[in-house]
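Rotation project, supervised by the postdoc (A.L.). Task for the rotation student: set up a whole-complex structure prediction and record inputs and outputs verbatim in this book. Inputs entered:
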Amino acid sequence: MPSTPIHLLRGAFAALLCGAALVNPLVHPMAHAQGQAPDQPPASPRSPYEIIENAPASAWRSLAAQNTLYLDLPQGRVVIELAPRFAPAHSANIKTLAREGFYDGLSIYRVVEGFVAQGGDQSKQRDTGAGQRQLKSERFTTAVAAGDFTFLPDPDSYAPRTGFVDGLPAAFDPATGEAWLIHCPAAFAMARDDSPDSGGTEFYVVLGHAPRYLDRNVTVFGRVVHGMDVMQQLNRSRSDLYGTLAEERRNPILRLQVAADVPASERLDIQVMDTGSASFAELVAARRNRPEPWFVETPDYVDACAVSVPTRLQ
Amino acid sequence: MPSTPIHLLRGAFAALLCGAALVNPLVHPMAHAQGQAPDQPPASPRSPYEIIENAPASAWRSLAAQNTLYLDLPQGRVVIELAPRFAPAHSANIKTLAREGFYDGLSIYRVVEGFVAQGGDQSKQRDTGAGQRQLKSERFTTAVAAGDFTFLPDPDSYAPRTGFVDGLPAAFDPATGEAWLIHCPAAFAMARDDSPDSGGTEFYVVLGHAPRYLDRNVTVFGRVVHGMDVMQQLNRSRSDLYGTLAEERRNPILRLQVAADVPASERLDIQVMDTGSASFAELVAARRNRPEPWFVETPDYVDACAVSVPTRLQ
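Outputs recorded:
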């Protein structure tokens, strides 16, 4: 460790500002009320791998098919879980567009290595049918309360508090009661023009180091829960700083579907770790200070984007 | 902005701890002494794209061929700049190994999406010749001083101070005088067993969100400056949490060479922005608070891994 563990001092300082909850261990207030048996503390701390591999069935949930998109690319299938509690209009609109086949045959036309991949109808020529091309932004919401969060105890440089809601990394401002999804890798969000209310069809996926400066500038409305390796295989632009691809290097979108519209036998059974579970709390603690003997220094800190919420394909 | 800009309070607090330099604008102490004309402040702040596209020739430097590796994979060439000031033994050893053909025909055998790609001689069967299989770690150094840094004014959650040295994101502890390279995306580092001094041949590249908890646990000794899109195309493991690939899905290493050993006509002319330049200082400021009208909120904060040091292929 550096001899000046500044994050500890900053944590203590943040606690003075924000109350004792910030320095409490990670505990979801609803975990016990929901009838989940708390894990017994293990005899010795377990590694993240051990925690994930041994998490009980109750620590996992399956995706709701009505809340899940399948983005089929030549490289494979990408599975996106939507976030209707944070962005109900954006979640509903993309389902409407998907059901009309709006995205089928369009492309992922902007890919910047380490930043984002963006797709849709760049030419704005295609009819949106019953869907909307422009939506009022859902950049933050007051419909998600502090009690809905599994908060991290750690301070964050971009938001007063961060944690997880419904498996999604999110932030909360106690002063305003506003909650918003944050730009961690795999975030699924809506591109727009200069007006905050000008996006509705052009989605993007965060590929690289969390571009947190985009937080609250755009509507994040989901997360890629399977197939980030597919997203990473997309052609990038090497000649255009903005990342727009020449026509012949664009990445075709074969199809975007709502999972509920796919025959049940053809759906992927993907499970996501419940971010309110005791297993997830143990995982966060192990990410903060890794217990394996390999580690000679531990930071006693973790940021929300460094705790990737586990998923598994059954 | 959230109504509680906690980072500002934390920044002020950090300034009390660490001295006024932390809240000064980003200025490299040597920029003027080196004869570089300071940029005139632009009439209006420029976007990162505009800054990079218009940076004068003096803001760019070419790679030194003796300090550059070419990692050739079936998907393309990856170019790595070594960091001999931070890790002289690791930098020299991998050049010795490359010149003996040690890596040629081996593989990148561990790839974890969003984390790292690791390659070398997992079986430990190959003769290292004059190279070393195990080196004393160079996890931090006292050979790089505060004056060598272009510091960020922003506080960091993992280190007392962060900034850039020789184009590489790095940290510094004023209390000990220790400097170390940090785990941003594209970091090139040496894997090891449990002993900190057990690594010498198995390199890895950071693929995803900065795994800063690895800082000071391992020796970082370079950065991929070209070809991260190639690294992202590698096969991942979807079945092994640790990421080890089945034999048939391993990613072959065609060749690892020192650029100086390649005929000059076949070298790539890659330039890296000088992190001591006025252009880089302007870029960091624009990354902290983006001036484009698109942004409706700005964080007044940036972390070192969110300032990717620009490179260009001439």
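Student's summary: The radius of gyration of chain A is 20 Å.
Supervisor addendum: Confidence is low (pLDDT under 50) at residues 1-39 of chain A.
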